[in-house]
Amino acid sequence: MQQETKICQNCKNSFIIEPDDFDFYKKIKVPAPTFCPACRLMRRMVFRNEHFFYKRKDSRTGEFIFSTISGTAQVKVYETDYWRSDNWNPMDYGRD
Known about the structure:
The chain is of the alpha+beta class and about 100 residues long.
């Protein structure tokens, strides 16, 4: 397969999909993108919260911390220093 030039459905700019990219899409069984890389990044970033902070409890210590994740969200949230430390095993939360 050779590289293909597509037109972004969002911004109407052209972008190139390389043969290796097509192989990857086939491997993970997804269609080729219809948005250019910049528009795909914008679409992913829209879900990031950089503006609002919530007071919620640290899942390890129970102390109040400030987080970008709402207190009503049913996820574990840790204080930054602990999160970045080697004091916990991320494989406890991983998936195969």
